[in-house]
Design brief:
The two termini are about 30 Å apart. The protein is about 25% helix and about 25% strand. The model has no long low-confidence stretch (mean pLDDT about 90). By secondary structure, it is of the alpha+beta class.
């Protein structure tokens, strides 16, 4: 499936405003205020935030794009988990005068949690590390409860290198890119990680509202499709999984960045997800292998 770049270093790739040109020249990500961390296979900075397939809507392909508006997605999670008026504070900035707050632990917020290694050799293993932990802390500094947050976009396949290079030269692109999306990662990586980490978090007495997963809308649709679309809704609870999905907003004038809008939210349980993931549902028609083999033999 061919796709075109529609957000490049945060802006429309054909935006020639001072702000858009400046971030491209400096390879800067406007969402986190520092150099873009998305790279190509050869290590060069990519700069691609969002692709648009020919016959579908935009697909966010960089998780950092989801951190726009100063990490508003974390405030969305905090509002759902702890209430609407509790401020977010970096985990390393708490003082006796801070008062009731949500302490944020994660990259870019001053402090990441140091968790014990799962590896017997002592090496760092990412099997149960989460992107963010939001901890509800009382006015006296006591931990009340916490939630964990995973943020994922979708990896790309194919190639958009020529298109990217053209836009960096501030030229219009008239060719075609072969960029697509690795939807199989939903099965191979995303769902297994969510299930495993959800089970780990259910062992935590103070993780009373479970695991949150933030993703682009098309990723949510692929997850729902893979799980058969029959998950039952549950209230927030230990062992729950809450998916929150987002889209980029409508096109904006030159010099502006599209907004990021929450499209939907759904809470179920890790057990429901695990059962749906391993259940023999949503299978293809019987004898698909035999049919394919016979069709191949007939062509000879």
């Amino acid at each position: 499936m061919a796709s075109r770049i529609i957000e490049f270093f945060g802006y429309n790739p054909e935006d020639r405003s001072y702000a858009a040109v400046a971030v491209r020249q400096n390879l800067q990500c406007p969402f986190i205020g520092r150099q873009c961390v998305k790279t190509l296979s050869d290590g060069l900075i990519s700069g691609v935030c969002t692709l648009k397939p020919t016959k579908a809507g935009p697909v966010i392909c960089c998780p950092i794009r989801l951190y726009s508006e100063n990490y508003e997605i974390l405030r969305d999670v905090a509002r759902v988990s702890f209430g609407p008026v509790i401020p977010l504070v970096p985990g390393n900035a708490l003082t006796e005068q801070t008062g009731e707050c949500v302490a944020v632990f994660g990259k870019g917020w001053g402090k990441e949690l140091r968790l014990p290694s799962r590896s017997k050799t002592g090496g760092k293993s990412g099997a149960y590390f989460v992107d963010w932990v939001l901890a509800h802390v009382s006015a006296t500094g006591e931990l009340i409860n916490f939630v964990a947050v995973e943020v994922q976009s979708i990896d790309t396949t194919g190639n958009y290198r020529a298109e990217r290079d053209t836009y960096l030269k501030e030229e219009a692109f008239s060719g075609k890119s072969s960029a697509g999306f690795n939807w199989e990662n939903v099965n191979k990586r995303i769902l297994p990680q969510l299930i495993y980490k959800g089970h780990v978090l259910r062992q935590e007495p103070l993780c009373q509202k479970g695991l949150f997963f933030v993703c682009p809308t098309p990723v949510y649709h692929k997850i729902s499709e893979r799980l058969g679309g029959g998950l039952r809704p549950y209230p927030l609870q230990p062992g729950s999984l809450t998916i929150m999905w987002y889209d980029v907003g409508e096109p904006v004038p030159t010099g502006k960045i599209r907004t990021l809008a929450m499209v939907g939210q759904f809470t179920t349980t890790i057990d429901q997800v695990a059962l749906a993931f391993t259940a023999p549902s949503n299978l293809p028609l019987a004898q698909v292998y035999e049919t394919a083999i016979r069709a191949s033999l007939e062509r000879k």
